Amino acid sequence: MDEVVQRVTFVSMETVTRASLVEQIYQQVGLSRKESAVLLEDILETVMLTLERGESVKISGFGTFSVRQKGQRCGRNPKTGEEVPILPRSVLVFRPSQLLRAAINHEPLEGGEAYDDE
Fold first, then answer.
1. 94 with 65: CB under 8 angstroms?
2. pTM
3. String of b and e for 34-57 (b: at least 16 CB within 10 Å)?
4. How far apart are CA 111 and CA 49, in angstroms?
5. 103 — phi, psi (to 5°)?
6. 81-100 pLDDT, tens per residue?
7. Adjacent-strand bridge partners of 76
8. Closest Cα to residue 44, out of 59, 61, 28?
């Protein structure tokens, strides 16, 4: 049985916003705008809390968000040349899936199919 995947296309938008995502949920799923907003906020909060705990968030066919710890290192003030310690910190890392990479680069997908962005 073939699985049909419907892609949502954002027409003439440079940046996808929360409001545009809520509107897409409203149009595609059929929830009210308020329910769509609550759903999106719940999803984003779950992702954020998971990352705060240091756990990874993997979204199949999209990518993986994870938190990486960077150790202390020495940097330099570009004006004075003085060495300045850069303190340890946590950084958010996103690793796109092969499917997302192929879509962005308009490359053939696994199985030889060409990516169709229309």
1. yes
2. 0.71
3. eebbebbeeeeeeeeeebeeeeeb
4. 36
5. -65, -45
6. 999 999 999 999 999 999 99
7. 83
8. 59
d(CA 59, CA 76): 38
Enter the tokens of residue 76: 């330099």
Query: Which among 58, 45, 52, 54 has a CA at the least distance from the CA of 100?
Result: 58
Where residue 118 falls among pLDDT bands split at 50, 70, 90?
Answer: very low
Residue 65, token pair as written in the block:
């968000």
Paired tokens of 21: 């995502």
Identify the residue whose tokens are 């303190």. Answer: 87
| Residue 23 to residues 6, 9, 34, 55, Cα–Cα distance (Å) | 16, 12, 10, 29
Nearest to 21 by CA among 31, 10, 32, 30: 10
Unique residue bearing structure tokens 């954002």? 10
Name the H helices within 1-118: 18-29, 33-52, 98-105
Residue 80 has pLDDT above 70, yes or no: yes
* pLDDT above 90 (res 115): no
Tokens of 6: 């419907």
